[in-house]
Amino acid sequence: MQTITPYRVMKAMLQMDKIVHGMMRVAFIAVSIASVLFVVPARTVAQSPAPAGPVYVVTHVDFTPRNAAAGEKALQQYAVDSRREPGAVRFEVLQEAAQANHFIMLETWRDRAAYDAHLGTPTTVRFRETIQPLIGAPFDVRLARLDQ
C-alpha cells in the first residue's frame, strides 16, 4: 500500500487538471463544428421564400424598471401608428402581469411583404430609436404562421 503524501496529491491533481483541460478542448472543438453545421443550414432556411398568407409576430420588449412608463407610452403610440399601415390586420400591446416593465406586442400582417414594408417605415425606425435607451434587454422578435 502506498502512502499518501502532499507530493502525490499534487501530482494527481495536475494529472486531473490536464485531463479536464483536454476534455474542455475537445468539447470546444465539438461545439465549434456543431455550430458551423447547424448555423449554415439555418441561414439557408431563413433565405427561402416566405410562405403565403398572414404573418403573426410576437415581440417581447423589456424596459428597465425606471423606464417602464415611458416605454409603455411609446409602445401604445407605436401600436396606434402601426394599425394605420397598409397590410396591418391587428396590433396589440400586452403588459405582463408579474413584471410591469415587460411587454408583449402581438401583430398580424396580411403577408410577409406587408410586414417587411412595416419594418422600413419612418414610424418603426423612430419607435426603435425612441425606445433603444429605455430597454433592458434586446428585442425578442418571433415570426410565426398559423398551424392548420
The overall pLDDT, averaged over residues, is: 79
Name the overall outline. extended
- Count the helices. How many? 4
In quaternary terms, these chains amount to single chain
Query: Order of helices and strands, N to C?
Result: HEHEEHHE
How is the largest sheet built, in terms of strand order?
A: 2-3-1-4
How many strands, which pairing sense, and closed or not: the largest β-sheet? 4 strands, antiparallel
Structural class: alpha+beta
Spatial extent as radius of gyration: 25 Å
Descriptive overview:
The protein is of the alpha+beta class. 51% of the residues lie in helices and 20% in strands. It has a 4-stranded antiparallel sheet with strand order 2-3-1-4. It starts with 5 loop residues before the first helix and ends with a strand.
